[in-house]
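Notes from the 1:1 (GR / supervisor)

We went over the backlog. Supervisor wanted to see one worked example end to end before approving the batch request, so GR pasted a single chain during the call. The sequence is below; no edits were made to it. Supervisor asked that the structure be written out right there so they could see what the output format looks like.
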Amino acid sequence: MSCPVHAVTVTSTGEAYGGRARMKTVNYIANGTAGSIVVRDGGASGAVVLNLATPAVADAYDLYIPDDGLLCSTSIYVTLTNVTSATIIYE
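Structure output shown during the call:
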């Protein structure tokens, strides 16, 4: 059974989606300096569900999350450090 998927692009730290969601893919553009993408469930002080180190190479990258994805029960909150943008694919 398939579910509808949605996408949101973030260019700064903040809430990407304000509800229960399963992250399936993260597409991001690194800006040439090593950095990170931290995804939390439930806001800036929520539990970390993903802490992704990004390379010091300006390029586009994809992270495919297998099986059921990463569950955020409350919301998807993203902190970008030295990342130009990130597109979160979720259901």
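Supervisor's comment: The chain has a mean pLDDT of 95.
Batch request approved.
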